[in-house]
Structure formats: structure tokens, C-alpha cells
Amino acid sequence: MHCPSLPEQALRVWLGALHQLALADGDFDEDERQILADNLAEMQPEAKFDWHSLPAPESEDLVKHLAVDPLMPEQFLRTAIVVAMADGHLSNEEIDLIKSWAAALGCSQGLVQLIESCAEEPHGLTVEALGSLRKWLDGLNPHDPRIASFIVHMIPAQCPFERDITLFGHKIVHIPAMCQINPLYDQLVELRFRCLDNLSEEQQIRISRLDSSSE
Questions:
Q1: CB contact burial 20-29 (16+ within 10 A = b; e otherwise)
Q2: In a domain, 132, yes or no
Q3: Which of 36, 70, 118, 180 has the most CB atoms less than 10 A away?
Q4: What is the tally of structural domains in the chain?
Q5: Are 154 and 192 in contact (CB under 8 A)?
């Protein structure tokens, strides 16, 4: 299952909601927001809207533009979970926002319960709930390059907890990746590759350069 190419207004609503979610818990500071907007503007110069000021949509906007296709609300919520889980956890602010969207879009109670299970600490998720969530995210493959590009920029190319510690210009210790603290790390990495495959070769080269410069 994949996200279809979206009409312009539906895309504005979709990305505006994801942008709102990225800012919801205060972990996405102004510098990170600016970097994301600049990178997206470079990756999608033909876009007809301003990445720097994506408006937060109202519930009625979600219904009007995303509920026209019966498959679209669930695909939208999959991308929302990805954005929220990119840092390894869901905050109460994020889960409340996603639940409000699920309710507005008339999603099934089972789906809402699955989303609510994400609010637990990673080690508090049941094996069954975690397996269902992983399978649910494995079904996301956004073919619209603008959504794919957004997701690629939200998911770090490297585990953010991997780093070198230097002293006077010399590396004294390497802290290895600790990505197991994010129970959906494998799903996020695989999704990032799927999104990259949906971008042009030129876009892939640009992202590769950005990834290399951040190492």
C-alpha cells in the first residue's frame, strides 16, 4: 500500500499536519526547523508553497482533503507515526494530536488503540502491540516525492546516539549506536530507503551529499 500522488491542496494539509506534529513536543527547535525547510526547498524547488511557514490544518481541513479516498487517512496516520517516532518515542502531546486526527478522520477503534499503545515507554509495549505496529508501518511506501522527501529528512541517516568523543583534536572513545532503544528503528531505516527509491536520481545524490556532510 502506498500514498498516491496528491492534489496540491491535500498535500499542503498533509505536510502542514506533519510539520505541526514535528513541533508538538518542543524537541524540534528553530534551528532544526530552519534546516528542514531549507533542505526541502532545495530538494523540491518546484513546490508551490513555502516550506518555512506550513500552516497547521484544522480538523475539517483533514476531513475535506484526506477523507476523500478511503485509504488515505490510514496512510496519513502512518506518516504521522513515523515523524513522531523518529526520535525513539511518542510524547503525550504527539499522541494526543494523532488521536485527534484519527477521530476526525473516522479511523477504526482498533487503529486508535494501536496508536495509543505507542504512548507507552518502548519496553512497556507488549510483543503483540509492537509486532502490529511494525507491520503497520511496513505497509507505508509514499510514492508522492514531496512526502517521501519530507520523511527522508525527518529520519536521520545515522543513529543520533552514535558519536566520537574527542579531546584536543584526538578521538579518545567511540560510543556505538544504541538504536535498540527505538523499537521501530529497523522499520524507520527501511522506510527511509523506500522513500529514497521514490525520489529522482538527482535528489538521491543531493541527499547522499547531505548525509555525508553530517557524518
A1: bbbbbbeebe
A2: yes
A3: 118
A4: 1
A5: no
pLDDT tens digits along 161-205: 555 655 555 665 555 555 555 677 788 888 889 999 988 888 888
Print the domain residue range for 75.
8-157+184-213
Identity of residue 49:
F
Beta-carbon count within 10 A of 49 CB: 16
Q: Which residue shows C-alpha cell 529522482? A: 200
Cβ within 8 Å of residue 103, ≥6 positions away: 112
Residue owning grid cell 529514497: 196
Query: How far apart are the C-alpha atoms of 133 and 183, rounded to whole Å?
Result: 10
User: Which grid cell sits at 151?
Assistant: 520523511
Global pTM reads 0.73
Phi, psi of 32 (to 5 degrees): -65, -40
In a domain, 170, yes or no: no
Average per-residue pLDDT for the chain? 76
Nearest to 93 by CA among 150, 24, 139: 24
What is residue 174's three-state secondary structure?
Answer: strand
Residue 30 one-letter amino acid? E
Contact by Cβ (8 Å): 161, 88: no
Q: What sign does the dihedral 49-51-53-57 (CA atoms) show?
A: positive
Q: Which cell numbers hold the place of 54?
A: 506550513
